[in-house]
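User: Good morning. I'm curious how zinc ion would be positioned relative to this chain. Could you predict the structure with it bound?
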Amino acid sequence: MRIHNVQPSAALSDPGREYRASEPSVPLRCCLRKSLADEPVWLFRYSPSSGKGPYAEVGPIFTHVDCPATPTLDRLPAELLNAPRILRSYNAAGQINDGSVVEPGSFDQVVNGLFDDPSVESLQVRSLSHGCFFFAITRA
Ligand SMILES: [Zn+2]
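Assistant: Good morning! Here's the predicted structure, ligand included:
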């Protein structure tokens, strides 16, 4: 699988972005971990590319202002998957194919199962409580 994170530069396209000098323990979509208290972050509107047309959604995400690390993008980021998450699959037209709640420890199995369906092009991992986009997954 290939993980798709969000670069901090994406914040610059949202004129309503908010700078937060300290916002500890928010999920960062750049390096795919939780923020530390001394790390400045952007909070901004973002639309993941897997949903298209009526399925394109815009929602709030956090990234570092200056990301200090490049995440590993060939396996799931454990720090953001320590709680139940929503996993949605999308077809090539950008329409939602399926959605489910996935428990910690089951992500690899569910991801591989969804990609067994040839009509599935990408997956989105989202917060269960808030629905916010975390990251996308495609086949390697
Ligand atoms: Zn980062």
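The mean pLDDT is 96. Residues 28, 30-31, 64, 67 surround zinc ion (CB under 6 Å).
Let me know if you'd like a different ligand tried.
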